[in-house]
C-alpha cells in the first residue's frame, strides 16, 4: 500500500511539474516586469535581499557498508527581515530571534520550492547579535526534514561546533542511538556546513557536508529559472542512493 501511495505521489508531482514548467517562462516575464517597476523606487540592495549559492553536498557512511556520493546543489540565502515575501513553512525573523535570544539580522539558507515541489533535507537560520556597530554570528537553527516522510525537527546550535542528540531517522539502517556533531561557517563569499554522527558502537560512521560559493546576484525574476527542478534533483539523488543501500542490505542477507 505504501508503494502504491508513493507511485501516485510520483505521478502527481510529475504532472504538476510538467504543467508549471510550461508556464514558467510567462511567470518569469511577469516577475521581471514587477521587479523593473519596484527598482524605480528602491535601491538594488533593497530589491534583492537574496544571495544565490552553488556548491556540492557530500555524504559518506562507513556502516553497514562503506558508501559515499556527492551532488551539485543550489541554495538561496534569504534576509528574512528584508524579503518582500516570507518563505512558506519556515520561521519568521522574530520567531528565530526569540528562540535564539538574538537581536540582529536573521538569514535563512534553504532550497526554494520549484514548479510545485519542495525537497529540503536541511535549512539553516543564521542568527546575529548586534552590539554597537559590531555584528557577529551568535547562534544557528537547523531544520532537518527526512525523506520521504516529511518529518521535521528544529534545534539551536553553536555554529562554531555543537553536539545535539539525534532526534529523527534521516537515513536507512541508522538507529536513533547517536549524537549529531554540527558546525557552520558565517556565510560570505563561501559557506560550509558539516554534520557527523557519533555512535557508541560504530564510532563516527556518517558524515555529510555542504560547501558552496556565492554567485553574482541576479534579478528576482531569474530565481525561478535558477532553481528550476533543483528540489527534484535532490529527491532523485536521495532515492537513488537509498535504493542502492536497500539492494546491498538484501544481498547481504541472502
UniProtKB/TrEMBL annotation:
Alphabetical keyword list: Membrane, Transmembrane, Transmembrane helix
Pfam families: DUF1365
InterPro entries linked: DUF1365
Domain of life: Eukaryota
Transmembrane feature ranges: 6-30
UniProt entry tagged with the keyword Membrane: yes
PANTHER family the record matches: OS07G0153300 PROTEIN
Protein name, entry field: Uncharacterized protein
Naturally occurring in which organism (per UniProt): Sphenostylis stenocarpa
Taxonomic placement: Eukaryota, Viridiplantae, Streptophyta, Embryophyta, Tracheophyta
Amino acid at each position: 500500500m505504501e508503494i502504491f501511495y508513493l507511485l501516485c505521489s510520483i505521478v502527481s508531482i510529475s504532472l504538476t511539474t510538467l504543467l508549471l514548467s510550461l508556464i514558467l517562462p510567462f511567470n518569469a516575464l511577469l516577475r521581471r516586469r514587477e521587479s523593473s517597476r519596484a527598482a524605480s523606487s528602491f535601491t538594488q540592495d533593497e530589491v534583492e535581499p537574496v544571495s544565490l549559492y552553488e556548491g556540492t553536498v557530500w555524504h559518506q557512511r562507513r556502516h553497514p557498508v562503506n558508501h559515499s556520493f556527492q551532488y551539485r546543489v543550489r541554495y538561496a540565502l534569504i534576509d528574512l527581515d528584508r524579503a518582500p515575501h516570507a518563505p512558506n513553512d519556515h520561521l519568521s525573523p522574530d520567531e528565530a530571534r526569540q528562540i535564539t535570544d538574538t537581536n540582529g539580522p536573521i538569514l535563512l539558507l534553504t532550497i526554494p520550492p520549484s514548479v510545485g515541489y519542495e525537497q529540503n533535507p536541511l535549512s539553516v537560520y543564521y542568527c546575529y547579535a548586534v552590539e554597537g556597530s559590531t555584528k557577529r554570528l551568535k547562534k544557528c537553527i537547523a531544520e532537518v526534514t527526512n525523506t520521504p516522510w516529511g518529518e521535521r525537527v528544529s534545534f539551536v546550535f553553536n555554529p562554531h561546533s555543537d553536539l545535539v542528540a539525534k532526534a529523527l531517522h534521516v537515513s536507512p539502517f541508522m538507529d536513533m542511538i547517536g549524537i549529531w556533531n554540527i558546525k557552520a561557517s558565517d556565510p560570505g563569499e563561501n559557506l560550509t556546513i558539516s554534520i557527523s554522527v557519533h555512535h557508541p558502537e560504530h564510532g563516527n560512521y556518517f558524515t555529510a557536508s555542504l560547501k558552496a560559493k556565492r554567485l553574482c546576484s541576479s534579478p528576482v525574476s531569474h530565481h525561478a529559472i535558477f532553481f528550476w527542478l533543483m528540489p527534484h534533483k535532490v529527491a532523485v539523488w536521495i532515492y537513488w542512493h537509498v535504493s542502492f543501500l536497500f539492494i546491498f542490505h538484501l544481498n547481504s542477507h541472502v
